[in-house]
Hints:
With about 425 residues, this protein is of the alpha+beta class. It has nine helices and 28 strands. Strands 1-13-12-27-28-14 form a six-stranded antiparallel β-sheet. A six-stranded mixed beta barrel has the order 2-3-9-4-7-6. Strands 15-18-26-19-25 form a five-stranded mixed β-sheet. The longest helix is centred in the last third of the chain and has 14 residues, at about 290-305. Belongs to the peptidase A1 family.
Amino acid sequence: MDSAKSFKLYNVYAHGTYTLEVRIGSEEASANLILDTGSSTLVVQSEDYDGKDDKYLVATPFAQSITYGLGGWYGPVVKSQVSITCCHDQTLQLNDVYISIALREHEHGFAQADGILGLAYYKLNKAYDLTAVFDQAAMTYQCFPSPVYEQLSTHSLPEFKSFIRQYPREYLTPYFTALAQQGTIANQFAFSVQRSSIFHPREGMTELELKQEPLNQGELVVNYPRQRTDLYRGTFSVIKVLDDKYYNVHVESIQVGEHTPRSAPLLKHINRRFRTNGIFDSGASGIALPQNLLEQVLEDLIAHNENFSKLLEPYYTFEGIEESVPLDALDLSQWPDIHIHLMGLYQPRVTLTLKPWHYWQAHAPDHGRASFQFVSLAHWPNQCILGLPAFAPYYVIFDRRETEFGAIFIAEKV
């Protein structure tokens, strides 16, 4: 446990989030999983890993049904071996990992990725014990795959979620927590990523060509991320994490250029699900704001330059797809920085500064187009989701050892 370990990430498969290749089970089934600090479950779709030939597989009586801001899935939980290969061809291996096998997923589930690797805490890794269902069917859950799940897979996502809630609930140990508990690595990890949307510098690029583009690559660094001094410069600022439901933070305000900062609204009710008015979420390809705060940000951008009005018109609403404008209509030198002010741990305030090329992604979602990275989610509470555009300017360390809930360290990225 004496050095930082780095893993190659690609922003190609998941429509604007980074994936890591893992190997599962005795047959080393390959899966490209979305790295998501906004969830805790390791889930892979059944087309990529069904467990049938896995000699390491241990069946469990658990099932999971997880929903996200967009998308969701359900399926049985098994245990098996998971390994990932470092940039220097070292393998990080963990046995008896809880893995969910997605039998059914929402149309906005994993895009072209094969599943999700959640990096948050156990409170988001909720499962239900279906022992009573197996007993009623006079079957044992230890026989996998089970006919019980063939019957249950006919449920819609809402039906299955409602069905399993009647059974005993447990919280399963997430992958990264198990990795740290094993003593293989220190309880911290870091992201070094280039952007949020997939970069299309030329028309008609193949998947392989997109992967070879440096701007579509990144790194996950585990163990001792501060050792990677080649990835950052200067000192770290420390953002206070207020709860470990997610990586919960407090967003004070958002400021467009030199305009007066706009206060971020508080949650109307502190509840078991949301906890605070902000989260750091590597599984989000944009920055989601409450509708009224988004409108204020757009208003300040237009006040900065009235010519921005037409370009920003598509972004007052969000339909679940990446809207874009012609790239040649943008002069990024005319756009101001946007500052996100957050509660600090060792200082009152930490400011994230997004340059125009962070919140406008060039050559996205296609060559010659550009997409604005601030959105608002319908039916979401007063919570800011700080997705990948907030990561891109910085080397971001999630140090889970710091204080009760951990802390987020940021330094200027090289």
